[in-house]
Amino acid sequence: MKSSREKLIAFLEEHLSDFLTYWRKHMYIADNDKYIDRVEHNGLSVFQLVKKTLSRHLCLNDIQALAEKIAKERAEANINIGEFVYNTNLGRSLIIRYALKSGLSIEELQPLIDNINGLFDQFLFYAVTKYTELKNAEIQEKNSFISQSHKDRLTLLGQMSSSFVHEFRNPLTAIMGFVQLLKFEHPNLKYLDIIDHELQQLKFRISQFLHISRKEMEEREKEPIFLEQLFQETVSFLYPSFVDGDVDVSTTIDPKARVFAYKDQLKQVFMNILLNSIEAVKEKEKPRHIHIQALSRHEEVLIEISNNGPMIPPETVQAIFEPFFTTKKLGTGIGLYVCKKIIEDHGGQITCTSDERITSFFISLPHEKRNSLPV
């Protein structure tokens, strides 16, 4: 006499064609699925696992092997994992529905249905785990490619920058020298201050390229820097730009705030952020305001440079420190990247926040140690 397990297997095999037809008709599957011709075959393979689990001849390796094979096909076909889970559970519910029509009593069916559910739970676990693993590997590969592309572009930019700087810097230095001579010999000659300022700006832009064209820069020694004095020098240098943009600038700087750093590099960071801020506030009506704040707090110095320009969209805020990212028509996309690199090289951090009222750049730098000052 047949056991309840054998009776259920025979009943399911008898209705297999009806079961597959209904399953195929109601499942989710894209027309462009590259493995569309294997779907029914995979369904039959899962049914064979059901028969094995009912006849107690199934091992975990059989479940894992089939689950990972199908997961690999789903990942290669770039199919949403939700659709796969839905189709699998649709097959589960159909098998249980047919099992309930088999004529077996509830007492006989209950342990068999528990076996079927256990099989599908294990199958989905292995399949989803493998699918996730494959997709994560795919994302990692894409991220590595993007990262390498950035490195390649930076290398190319470095080669171009080095050539550009050598060709351009010598005549620029000569021009700046002759401007200084003219200022000395003709102190009242109009426009010399403007020419000198613009040449200094050009020199500053060139130095930006220098910071990413070499891994090691020939720098002066680090020195104790009082931020109040450094910001005074920076704001004075940019004074023509503030006037030109009709921008009010204010400062709240702790006189005790000082860091141990390369002065030229920090000045470059502050100039870059201030120039960007000036360009931002010029896009709105007056009043246009930029505020600089620096506080000495425990082991670090906190700097905030804020402006009341237009809001930067959240997706842009997340990307502004990436190399070559720019929203300007003629921008290079390296200014804020250089700022981030300089601050991080000094052991600090730089972030940006923006809303409809204010945009702020926050910089934290290690506080200068007392024993670094000359006695």
TrEMBL record:
It catalyses: ATP + protein L-histidine = ADP + protein N-phospho-L-histidine. It comes from the Bacteria. Its EC number is 2.7.13.3. PROSITE patterns: HIS_KIN. Keywords: ATP-binding, Kinase, Nucleotide-binding, Phosphoprotein, Transferase, Two-component regulatory system. One of its GO terms (molecular function) is phosphorelay sensor kinase activity. Residues 163-369 form the Histidine kinase domain. Signal peptide: none annotated. PANTHER family: PEROXIDE STRESS-ACTIVATED HISTIDINE KINASE MAK3, SENSOR HISTIDINE KINASE. This is histidine kinase. It comes from Anoxybacteroides tepidamans. The lineage of its organism: Bacteria, Bacillati, Bacillota, Bacilli, Bacillales.
